[in-house]
Specification:
The chain has about 500 residues and is mainly alpha-helical. The chain is built from 19 helices and no strands. It has helices spanning about 5-10, 15-25, 35-70, 75-85, 85-130, 135-145, 150-170, 180-200, 205-210, 245-255, 275-300, 315-325, 325-350, 350-360, 375-390, 395-425, 435-440, 445-460, 475-500. The protein is globular and about 75 Å long.
């Protein structure tokens, strides 16, 4: 990048970076349904309050120090390579790229889910007012995504079209993320503000009847117990689940909803006064994300809707129960905007990783090919094919692989934080994690423990739960382990090819 380009692209202000970070991490309360369904309202609120302190806050502090010390495009890849050398720098990029494949598969799934729910309530509203608009139950089947059914194939096709639309949008060139992120964030949160106020002012009359379902342990006379003792149920007629399973599943989904803090670092070269802006933006974004998660869930607990009904897209049902079909459709449209908007914005970040690896000689040079507007079209198209394929895994499997691979890459960033403290003590750090090297070293302990717990929970407890989960657990775990093991192999092969061609 030329000096002229560097100076003209630093346009993201503090407010803009807060909006961009919020959108990279959260994009609204969408996606919290499985947290509520897994453990009920109390477990969900507890998880949403605990995870920021043991997962988000340490990550935000780490990102704040490294972004202010090394404000360069490439973010985490640059940090790890500088701190630990090219091998670990490559592993950071590899793990991030592998995680991105599964992460990006989630947003088209969310788009399809909320599109189907919004359509269901719109069709029902039209039918009730004398306009024959079809069967709303057909849209419900698309939202449920039962593997192998016609509705599943239609939903998959819609998801692929979403990916294609975002690819075409990105091939036209990147645009500023700051102002648009602020506007989109406000648009997404507005329906939840209405929902929260209505739920508090006019709680459902059936709340007291549904309250037992929000507790961690069910009443002894209302649910059967498992053979091994403690159980948890998510609704009437469903098999009870072990309490530890409930907490692990809720934790896994909560972790995913609090992921992505380091993605903001990849645009450091376009941020005004990054040394000052990043720490302030990270602190504000952590608070904003936590509040916009906890408040709507706490308000929804007053609606009387049992946790068993909190499948993907259930926010639309909550909106209908509280504010009628208009609010339901508004929340559904917001979910579509979330799925499309987050996918579209992350294409810019994720599709650049293969370019960096190709420039360093680890991937074929074809990935560096660009259009006249500078967009690396080969990388964008190849990534889009991988994202489309990952949709076949379904929501739960893709999310588990995303959390695992992302978490491993995040641990490398915490190691880089400590390594730079030791190797480059004189490096200017406008923001420094207080407490010296000891606190910097301990900062990654809680995220490591949370990640280990999530991985253990998947290996020990997670089995296919419904028809939307088509891939057996063993295959998904083997796929994740294989991708991790493939990283060093690709690095060594790349090194050998570079030696043969005289690159190194």
């Amino acid at each position: 990048m030329s000096n002229h380009e560097a100076t003209t692209t630093r346009k993201v202000t503090l407010l803009g970076l807060i909006g961009a970070t919020y959108f990279m991490v959260a994009g609204g309360p969408y996606g919290l349904e499985n947290v509520v369904q897994s453990g009920g309202y109390l477990v969900a609120i507890a998880a949403l309050l605990i995870v920021p302190f043991v997962w988000s806050l340490p990550t935000a502090l780490m990102v704040s120090e490294l972004s202010s010390a090394i404000p360069e495009d490439g973010g985490y890849y640059v940090w790890v390579r500088r701190a630990l050398g090219p091998f670990w720098g490559f592993q950071e990029a590899w793990l991030s790229l592998a995680a991105s494949v599964f992460d990006m598969a989630l947003y088209p799934i969310f788009f399809v889910t909320y599109f189907a729910y919004a359509a269901k309530y719109a069709v029902r509203f039209l039918n009730n007012h004398g306009v024959a608009a079809g069967n709303p139950d057909w849209w419900q089947k698309i939202a449920e995504r039962n593997f192998g059914e016609t509705a599943w194939a239609i939903g998959l096709g819609v998801g692929v079209l979403v990916i294609a639309g975002c690819v075409l949008s990105n091939l036209r060139g990147a645009r500023g993320v700051g102002f648009s992120s602020i506007v989109l964030t406000v648009a997404l949160l507005a329906p939840f503000g209405v929902l929260s106020v209505l739920a508090v002012v006019h709680p459902a009359a059936s709340t007291s009847q549904e309250q037992p379902q929000t507790e961690v342990m069910p009443a002894a006379d209302s649910q059967p117990e498992a053979a091994d003792g403690g159980t948890e149920t998510t609704g009437q007629g469903e098999a009870p689940k072990p309490v530890e399973f409930v907490w692990i599943t809720a934790l896994l989904f909560a972790m995913w909803n609090y992921m992505g803090w380091d993605n903001a670092a990849t645009i450091a070269g376009e941020v005004e006064r990054p040394q000052r802006t990043y720490p302030l933006a990270m602190a504000a974004a952590v608070i904003l994300v936590t509040l916009t998660y906890v408040i709507p869930v706490a308000a929804a607990s007053r609606t009387g809707i049992g946790p068993a009904k909190w499948t993907e897209g259930a926010w639309v049902d909550v909106g209908d129960a509280v504010g009628g079909p208009a609010l339901a459709v508004a929340i559904g449209i917001g979910g579509m905007l979330m799925g499309y908007g987050m996918f579209n914005s992350l294409v810019l970040s994720y599709s650049r990783l293969p370019v960096v690896l190709a420039q360093d000689g680890y991937l074929p040079a074809v990935f560096t090919r660009r259009l006249k507007n500078g967009v690396p079209w080969v990388s964008v198209v190849v990534c889009a094919i991988a994202w489309s394929s990952a949709m076949l895994l379904g929501l739960k499997r893709a999310l588990a692989l995303d959390v695992t691979l992302y978490g491993l890459s995040l641990l490398l960033e915490f190691v880089a934080l400590v390594a730079l403290r030791i190797r480059e003590p004189q490096l200017a750090r406008p923001f420094r994690v207080p407490g010296g090297k000891v606190v910097a070293a301990l900062l990654g302990v809680f995220p490591a423990l949370v990640l280990a717990l999530a991985i253990f929970g998947q290996a020990a407890k997670w089995v296919p739960e419904d028809k939307s989960d088509p891939i057996p657990q063993e295959w998904a775990l083997m796929l994740g382990a294989g991708l991790v093991a493939l990283g060093p192999v690709v690095y060594l092969v790349g090194q050998r090819l570079m030696r043969r061609t005289g690159v190194v």
